[in-house]
Specification:
The chain is built from four helices and six strands, in the order αββββααββα. Helix 1 crosses helix 3 (112-121). 32% of the residues lie in helices and 13% in strands. The chain has one domain (2-166): Glutaredoxin, CATH 3.40.30. A hairpin with a 5-residue loop joins strand 5 (133-136) and strand 6 (142-146). The chain has 168 residues and is an alpha+beta fold. The radius of gyration is 16 Å and the shape is globular.
Amino acid sequence: MRTLLTLLSAAIMLAMAHFSTCAESDGAFDYEFDAIEGGKLPLAQWRGKALLVVNTERYRERGLVVIGVPSNDFGEQEPKAEAAIQAFCKGAYNVTFPLTTKVAVSGARAHPFYLWAREALGAASAPRWNFHKYLVGRDGKLIAGYGSRVEPFSSELTKAIDAALAAH
């Protein structure tokens, strides 16, 4: 069984690698999540906008879309059901940006977006803890990954967001 799972994981990763390098790929816009309140959350709906998959709303008026992705991969920090996660985020932090359903973001069973990001930027840029961020350009191309130690308003991240928003 373990061998079968390993082969299946390898096949999926190879398929994802092929998909992510396909000439007709729209980068991040090829992926979708399930919205926490139900329905689909295709990243293509924000084509032409810069995306930050997790964190700040400071740049909303300039065209930045933040997408929160809850995960229980690290220290079981997010064991709650999705309705409880949504209520907490909206109540405690007044979150108004889209939230996805809870997904795996690390390892072989990670959501396809995270597998693509790891393939594109290398294993060193994969999430190692919660609040990992990926910045996606208006063209759907992955710009960079930022670990949980990079604060939402750090100059490193805000400079990258400014540059992504300035690109047309």
